[in-house]
Design a protein that fits this description.
96 residues, mainly alpha, 4 helices
């Protein structure tokens, strides 16, 4: 597997490849060199999954410098209170 191929894998594809390597290793019937290769490949697939998750987290994390009125504004980040709503809630209606 080339580095360029690894970078093009989706999270789901990389995770499936990682799980295959884990299954091979858990069986315990690989020769030493095959087991080492499976570990090395598994680490690369794990790194790909981690990179994709890190990027996803970066995309959804709200920066304090984000301007008000953006698609996801600071109110969701806890920087500003949510606007008041004229809604009365009976505590008896809350299921928890």
């Amino acid at each position: 597997m080339s580095e360029a191929t690894e970078r093009q894998l989706t999270y789901e594809e990389a995770l499936a490849e990682l799980e295959k390597r884990i299954t091979l290793l858990e069986r315990g019937d690989l020769a030493l060199e095959e087991a080492l290769r499976a570990v090395e490949e598994g680490r690369r697939y794990l790194a790909r999954c981690t990179a994709i998750l890190d990027e996803a987290e970066r995309r959804i994390t709200i920066s304090p410098e984000e301007p008000a009125g953006s698609e996801v504004g600071p109110a969701l980040a806890g920087d500003e209170p949510l606007p008041d709503r004229d809604v009365e809630v009976d505590p008896e209606d809350i299921p928890f």
